[in-house]
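Appendix B, example 12.
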Amino acid sequence: QVQLVESGGGLVQPGGSLRLSCAASGSTLRFTAMGWYRQAPGKQRDLVAHITVGGVTNYADFVKGRFTISRDNAKNTVYLQMNSLKPEDTAIYYCKAYDFNVWGQGTQVTVSS
């Protein structure tokens, strides 16, 4: 069974950048689509970005042009590069391996001055 561990979250000022990582163990991510989601307090969990096995990406409108999802199959890791961060990006960010239907534990991102 695959296990996912997110890292890279933290406190950043508006306009700053962070790179989140989602590292897998127990199985390869090479053959599964992956997604990044986020959940703010009191709100539902929303899809942020998605990447297919072939590397095709899709983004939620609220992050287009600011966030980039990528994958490194050799490192069994998926990334989310977040630029031009806004206070409304504050949330817990989760990665998901679709074929395994497995979530990571989440990493907190706080955007505040």
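The first strand starts at residue 3 and ends at 7. The mean pLDDT is 97.
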